[in-house]
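ok posting inputs for the 1-deoxymannojirimycin job
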Amino acid sequence: MIGSGMSKRLPYTNKDVDYDNAKFRHRSFIQAFTQSLATSNLKRDCTSCSTGKFLLLLLVFGLAYVMLTHTSPGPIVSDNQAIGDGKSENNLITKGRITLKSLLRRPPRLPPRLPPDSKSSSNKIGHVNQDVGSVWTTRQKKVKDAFIHAWSGYKSYAMGFDELMPLSHHGVDGLGGLGATVVDALDTAMIMGIDEVTAEAGSWVEAHLAKRISEKGQVNLFETTIRVLGGLLSAYHLRGGEKGMNLTNAGPEPDVYLDIAKNLADRLLSAFTSSPTSIPLSDVILRDSSAHPAPGGLSSTSEVSTVQLEFNYLSSVSGDQKYSVEAMKTLDHMKTLPKVEGLVPIYISPHSGQFSGENIRLGSRGDSYYEYLIKVWLQSGASHESNTSYLYKMYVEAMKGVKHLLVRKSIPNGLVFVGELPNGLNGGFSPKMDHLVCFLPGTLALGATKGLTKEKAMLNNALSFEDIENLKLAEDLAKTCFEMYSVTSTGLAPEIAYFHTEEFSEQGLEGGNKSSEYVNDIIIKPADRHNLLRPETVESLFVLYRITEDPKYREWGWQIFKAFEKYTRVETGGYTSLDDVTYVPPSKRDKMETFFLGETLKYLYLLFGDSSVVPLDKFVFNTEAHPIPINLKK
Ligand code: DMJ
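and the output
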């Protein structure tokens, strides 16, 4: 059957030959010619006739001669010349002549030609970039989903309360009862483009907040300013107020936010005007606009110096300078006070106007003093000639003090950390670092480039030796802050870490992740093992990613986000603080802090997204992550 089938097989038709070869394989002229002879009727008719054989041979040699000696009349362009530089040794055409070599050699395999436009987008790097882009888009979407989940828990069980207790499904007023989560979350919803949440939060503000402000009792000046006043002012700008960004049309008109902000700030002003010095009192009774010192009489240094961005912006958009004037008196006065190499104690007396005690740290009660020195100067336009330039000088001096007095390295693996001087310059050094200190890498990076990318700042010749040193310190500290997460069993940082040094060591207090390189460098005491969903590390990762453009900061942020998802997400809605990050499963605290929506998720969202959204050279983020535009009009 096979043999007979073969013998009976019909010769290829020209169509078959074309189909077999022409589209997929290049053929030389000789191949095509001999194949054509072998398959043509001419073969069958003439091969038995000797005259025919002679004529056929003559024809073959004649054609071969013509081809070997023929010179092309015009330029011949090969595939190589069209794609490459035309100088390749593989070029088959030499001075317009077809050579025997060229006839015998198989043509090289060439990549498919593409129209010029498609070339750049189909190269390997292009594909890789596209893939990387879509990975971060997907991750950013997951952060947005997390925000929606956090909001839905709050809305279901705690709408109008300051905070959600996500396990017991209650609300709690830990901040004076102004619905702090609503206002803290509002601009995050705007930035994420979630109109439904923007409308819900905005409508609640419009319907309830003014009444609350007029009826409520005691609030803390600092907490109310950074969360509620700051949130209202950002919402005003992002909603399009005073030619703001107009990110959304959802929720009330921008002036609704501004009017409530003024109402609130008018009452908060009493903390300044009731003080015998330029240092404001700590608390305000909203309903009667009276102010009171904290128990013990002292204010926190960070609190009195972390309201100026908000009051300045309010003056700018309201046209009423009283807010800015009062708030800036505090910083003007602090300029005159004695310091330790730019570093300041964490308490200050509104009665004497002097610092109190000697405890120096960049953690709680100290932190955002340093942050606002540079940010208020940036907000005013970052000029060395402006009347805020003293703040830049105070910042520069303070960072020198930090490097000289507070920065050390751990053993055995050399993590750079910022410790404390609990008893001042003449007391001992404590290798204790609050998670709160992790704001510092971001602030250092911002102070170095003033919000530009490092590349652009270098191109502009805008980095001094000190700026470069500060940027390096920022990167080292960001790594330490990230390792404070990696070193624990849950991948979440404790509230406070200690660092193993030559002078200080404690055994058996590890984070629990044995595979961490730094398990012996970081010590976590039992009382410090909680996690409150704090933002400082992801805040710094966001700023450092924007400034250095190094993708590792995004990766670190992603690791942290995954750990939050794994251990703090509550199925019925919301996220919860934890009691102990060193143990799996961690016990839960039943509290979702407002800054998880206001800061932590916002910074993660921005970290994974496009750097042109809320650019760092056009906005300063207040200490609660509410963006405020820079370059205010007076
Ligand atoms: C926030 O309220 C602010 O970031 C403040 O500066 C420090 N504490 C919390 C977040 O941890």
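notes: The two ends are 100 Å apart (CA to CA). The longest helix spans residues 124-158.
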